Amino acid sequence: MTSKSDWLSFPDAPHIVVPPPGPRSRELLAEQARLETDAIGYPHYFPIAPKVAQGATIEDVDGNRFIDWVAGISVLNLGHRHPRLVAALEAQSHEIWHALELPTEARIRFLRELEGVLPGGLRGHARIFFTVTGGDAVETAVNLADFAQGKQGTVAFSGAYHGVHGGVVNLTSGRRYHSTSYFGTGKVIRVPYPDPYRPVLGADKGAAGTIAYLEHLVNDPSSGVDAISSVLVEPILGEGGYVVPPDDFLPSLREFCDRHHILLIADEVQSGLGRTGRMWAVEHSKVTPDILCIAKTVGGGIPLSVVAYRSDLVKELPRGFHLGTYRANPLALAVGAETVRVLKEGDLIDQTRSRGEQLLSRFRSLADRHPSIGDVRGKGFMIGVEFVHNRTSRLPWGDRGKAMRAALLGRGVLMHTAGAWDQVLRFMAPLIIEDELLDRGLAAFEDSLESLDATPERTATTSPQVPHRAEPAPHLHPPPEHAIPSPVMPERPGRNLEEKDAS
To answer: In angstroms, rounded to a whole number, what is the distance separating the alpha carbons of residues 280 and 288?
Structure first.
């Protein structure tokens, strides 16, 4: 049991004073709906108004306290307001807040700290490119690869999420993101991600099918692919459903790239900096990418992202190759340097690996008792729990995932969905979360499962044999003016997200 003096979180979480959203939260949600764009999504998933956060917990304006298993979508690996990060931010705030590209002490400290923890052959042999967001980092990485190779063509995988602004949206696989973007830049070759639970190219038997298909794209003059400059990959699929590929996938992909003089870009925006029980997820496979994309946790909640690339990749980049007024903000760099120090100095990452194995076992134990769970997979604190209508068909059950998210919210636990149909609940709590909060969160998870299992499923008017995606039509179905989001249960627990959106 954690000594109360050692707690970073609110010790009494979860604590629900009034069912969320409470009256004060409703007031703020209504005002947000009046003043802000309809395009925002998270208030519909978590209709609360946060007031203060500590460690792995959040208190809303109504006094409800929640266990945070979202962590800003893996932004807060060290939790909310970690004391050492607060101290670093405070110290830097008395010096300089903005400095363009000039070499502040904060900038040099960060560069040195980051260089010392880069994976494999990048350590001591990398150059750093500062960017602002994860999507910005990925787009820069692909542009850098094309510049270095003197050609265009990027392999990106199904289920991938690499950002949605500008040209990077083309690298993200979801159709719903493409439908609202009009930047048609870049040449993207889409290949199925090797998912052992939903194998397309024999992924349940390893990576051979994926590699064979990539060889076909390169070697067959009729494959339809003119050139490949780089392969962009998430070591573990993030928004696509926390899919862990076969063990031989990344090593085989590295060998494929080397054979054909193709650059390997690893997107570690979500999986990096301790999240999977290693500093970098690629370290599980002992693979070194040519280019590494870093964001989210590196700024501790302050926007900061980085591209690290092999120092011999290009002889010289032209000045202004990538511009951005807010790149490498000194406040973010001070917090980032301290984040890296915290992660490398103690045993937090090793603990994340061992605690993650225990959590994986406990989630799988729940799956043994609840047939709506089709699969549990993950590494470290990056765990996905996939819901299905039945284990034989493996038909994704998106509404069960969303219903679980709502049921957990009512019990004081924040947990978010992923996957093409929102059928996967993903565990991505801060690495510093106390064991007691893990126990309480798991108890709430099981209670939510049992409450939903006890609810009779209504017969759907349509019974698709395979998952389908209806094209969104946001202009045809405007929401009620200033509607307040509410965590209501789906009308039909068996209905998929796409059916609901198309109605």
So the answer is: 10
Residue with the two structure tokens 């209501």: 488
What is the band of 319 on the pLDDT scale with cuts at 50, 70, 90?
A: confident
Domain boundaries, the chain: 4-68+347-453, 84-345
Instruction: Tell me the C-alpha distance between 491 and 399, whole Å.
Output: 9
Residues 6+ apart with CB under 8 A from 118: 124, 126, 280, 292, 308
Q: CA 13, CA 289: separation in Å to the nearest integer?
A: 40
At 100-142, the pLDDT tens digits run 999 999 999 999 999 999 999 999 999 999 999 999 999 899 9
- Here the tokens at position 494 are 């068996």
Residue 498 predicted with pLDDT over 60: no
State the DSSP code for 388: B
160-185 burial code (b ≥16 CB/10 A, e <16): bbbbbeebbbbbbbbebbeeeeeeee
Give the C-alpha distances (Å, rounded to integers) separating 119 from 27, 215, 267, 363, 426.
Answer: 47, 27, 13, 30, 25
Q: Name the CATH architecture for the domain at 84-345.
A: 3-Layer(aba) Sandwich (3.40)
Contacts of 235 (CB under 8 A, 6+ apart): 245, 250, 266, 268, 271, 276, 280, 281, 282, 284, 285
208 SS3 class: helix
Tokens at residue 368, please?
């043994």
- In sequence order, the 6+-apart residues with CB closer than 8 A to the CB of 383 are 242, 356, 359, 360, 363, 376, 377, 426, 427, 428
The alpha-helical segments, DSSP class H, found in 370-434 are 398-410
When computed from its CA atoms, the radius of gyration of the chain, rounded to whole angstroms, is 22
Strands (E), 405-471: 413-414, 416-418, 424-427
Cα distance between residue 503 and residue 498, in whole Å: 9
Determine the pLDDT at residue 456: 63
Instruction: Give kind and range of the element (H or E) at residue 51.
Output: strand 50-54
Question: β-strands 416-418, 424-427: how paired?
Answer: antiparallel
Mean pLDDT of 291-316: 96
Nearest Cα neighbor of 447 from 384, 387, 404, 492 is 404
| Mean model confidence pLDDT for the chain | 88
* pLDDT value at residue 321: 85
- DSSP annotation string for 233-289: E-SSBSTTT-BPPPTTHHHHHHHHHHHTT-EEEEE-TTTTTTTTSSSSGGGGTT---
Both tokens of 2, joined, read 């954690």
H helix runs in 132-174, sequence order: 134-149
Fold for the domain defined by 4-68+347-453: Aspartate Aminotransferase, domain 1 (3.90.1150)
Residue among 51, 54, 49, 50 nearest 81 (CA): 54
